[in-house]
UniProtKB/TrEMBL annotation:
PROSITE patterns: HTH_LACI_2. Keywords: DNA-binding, Transcription, Transcription regulation. The lineage of its organism: Bacteria, Bacillati, Actinomycetota, Actinomycetes, Pseudonocardiales. It comes from the Bacteria. InterPro entries: HTH_LacI, LacI/GalR-like_sensor, Lambda_DNA-bd_dom_sf, Peripla_BP_I. GO terms for molecular function: DNA binding. Residues 12-66 form the HTH lacI-type domain. This is LacI family DNA-binding transcriptional regulator.
């Protein structure tokens, strides 16, 4: 095994830049952090020297006089959920356009972990982007009252936010199943701390009643692939011919379990997911699901924290029909 001998090279400091550029340390610092206070010729010279030496500014140290670090904390409930990839990408792009960077925190679907992240990060971030927060509203309010914050998929009093149009999505799902002759449908619920789960349950039940369908709900189930087997068993026990999962991970797990049991999808039972994650279109059979405007939501959260209101706080969501749904037997 090859080992490198000797000490690691020392990081380049602002003192190194100043010495190499032949200017005072204060001048070098102003040229890099407050260029309006030095001449353009001096600024260009110092910047060129800094780039040649490979100098990287210490964002925390720069923030000490202003109290701002240029960092936003993005707190998500499950970093392994592919739905969040688009959201992270959208938030990162919008933050970069505004001159900010992101700190990513995974709450692991645990309210206590989520609150611990907020406490630790509060001292050095300029704002919080919360995705489907699980903690109680009063505890979130107590921690966030001094920080700009925006929330996706959970309305919280006093905080700006955006949500997906869950009611419209539920209406499309129920209409699609009713038109294919399904008379009994079941909703496989997600985490009990999820606002979106409660809304999905409420709106699916309401639209099922409008169409005269029998409606049942099972769970709560963790929003992961391994929930597919118990969720499928619970759904089948209701006698439903169509199973609507809280998210695509549960739905794909349901498809896998039904295939192991030799139950034909969509011949014997239809399956619907939510989020349209990567993989939903090429599982077996391809999953009928509801799109989630994740990247748009990520961008909207950054806009809200920086003081720009979105055109519409309710983001569109549409049904994508694939092979996992068909006519009822």
């Amino acid at each position: 095994m090859d080992h490198t001998d000797g000490p690691r090279p020392r990081a380049v400091t602002i003192y190194d830049v100043a010495r190499e550029a032949g200017v005072a340390t204060s001048t070098a610092s102003r040229a890099l952090s407050n260029p309006g206070r030095v001449s353009e010729r001096t600024r260009a010279h110092v910047v060129a020297v800094a780039e040649r030496l490979g100098y990287v500014p210490n964002r925390i140290a720069q923030a000490l006089p202003s109290g701002r670090t240029g960092l936003f904390a993005l707190v998500i409930p499950d970093i392994t959920n592919p739905h969040h990839v688009g959201l992270i990408r959208g938030a990162e792009a919008q933050a970069a356009a505004a001159g900010h960077s992101l700190v990513l925190a995974d709450s692991q679907e645990d309210a206590a972990v989520e609150l611990a992240h907020l406490r630790r990060l509060a001292s050095f971030v300029d704002g919080f982007l919360l995705v489907s927060p699980r903690a109680p509203a009063d505890e979130l309010a107590a921690l966030l009252h001094r920080h700009p914050a925006a929330v996706f998929n959970r309305p919280l009093a006093g905080l700006p936010g955006v949500v997906t149009d869950i009611d419209a999505a539920s209406a499309q799902v129920v209409r699609h199943l009713a038109e294919r002759g399904h008379r009994r449908i079941a909703y496989l619920r997600g985490p009990d701390t999820s606002w979106a789960d409660g809304e999905r349950h409420r709106t699916l039940a309401a639209h099922a009643a409008e169409h005269g369908l029998e409606f049942a709900a099972t769970g709560h189930h963790p929003a992961v692939l391994d929930s597919g087997a118990p969720a499928a068993e619970a759904g089948l026990a209701t006698g439903a011919t169509a199973l609507i999962a809280f998210n695509d991970l549960i739905a794909i797990g349901v498809l896998q379990h039904l295939e192991r049991l030799g139950i034909d999808v969509p011949g014997r039972v239809a399956v619907v997911g939510a989020d349209d994650v990567f993989g939903a279109s090429f599982c077996h059979p391809p999953l009928t699901t509801v799109t989630s405007p994740a990247e748009l939501a990520g961008r909207a959260l950054v806009d809200l924290v920086t003081g720009t209101a979105p055109d519409d706080p309710v983001l569109p969501s549409e049904l994508v029909v694939r092979g996992s749904t068909g006519p009822a037997r």
